[in-house]
Amino acid sequence: MAAPTVHLVDASMYVFRAYYSVAPEFADHEGQPVHAVQGFLSFLLSLCEQAKPSHLLVAFDQSLTTSFRNRLYPAYKANRELPPPDLDRQFDYCREVAATLGACVLSDADYEADDLIGSALARLRGHGFRGVIVSGDKDLTQLLGEHDQVWDFAKRERFGRDDVPARMGVRADQVADFLALTGDAVDNIPGVPGVGPKTAAALLAHFDTLDALLARLDEVPYLRGIRGAASAAARIREHRGQALLSRTLSVIALDAPAPGEPDAYARRAPDLARTDELLDRLRFGPLTRRRVRELAPD
Predict the structure, then answer these.
(1) What is the pLDDT of residues 52-101, one digit of tens each?
(2) pTM for the model
(3) What's the CA angle centered on 152, arms 75 and 295, to 5 degrees?
(4) Which of 25, 97, 193, 255 is the most buried (most CB within 10 A)?
(5) For 63-67, 164-168, 213-217, which range has the lowest pLDDT when averaged over its residues?
(6) Rounded CA gap, 255 and 18, in Å?
(7) CB atoms within 10 A of CB 211
(8) How far is CA 132 from CA 8, 118, 126, 141, 177, in A?
(9) DSSP states of 199-255 as a string?
């Protein structure tokens, strides 16, 4: 019998995408913009129509500045602009939309959506579940187990653990160590200056883990097939602490506050009275209302 599946949505990515791609022609009952809500709701409806998920988590980032990673490294994500005020308001609507569609909705000031997704998946694996992670974020590939998938909904691409080496040059379980060496400009994670993806992948292919690489760093200058191996060794030795910090920032936490029982993620039938009231406030039209009414778990 096939394992039960939980769909885990990295919601903030799709809200931001909607904010910048949907024309700002939608306004709520107070005349405030809700185009990101329209785009996000359309995405979520399409996901539910196509996948018909029995268990659904929609996880949001609550803040760009308050996670435990910011306390460890204040510059974490400091390169990102804070959301515009009208988008903050739309995020609140998006959480409400996801809840009215019957999803389990999580956000937390200390943990990011990635951590909530990873923690939920880790707990549900104990109940025999596999996960489908709905996101385009490469960091989430580190969570993939044997039967899990990443579904990049916008690109209509699905891939599993065995596809990660062709995409990133390392195994799924090596992704955090890889980012510890290369850094991640998107999240402002420093890594080791001068160590690029090819060098990082080659080093991990030889040593397997960052810990083994650091323990055997004296061997690196003598490795054949790694261009600039001696200078890479010198950089890693100089920035050893920064590499370890970068790994801590890159590892997805599995101890975030997420429910442990499958029933918490079971998709409920939409609360039509609550949904009608919400759609009235949003001033969304009959097509959206019909799609919501037709949506019901199997």
Answers:
(1) 999 999 999 998 788 999 999 999 998 888 888 889 899 999 999 999 99
(2) 0.95
(3) 115
(4) 97
(5) 63-67
(6) 30
(7) 12
(8) 6, 11, 16, 11, 23
(9) HHHHHHHHHSSHHHHHHTGGGGGG-TT-TTHHHHHHHHHHTHHHHHHHHHHHSPPS-
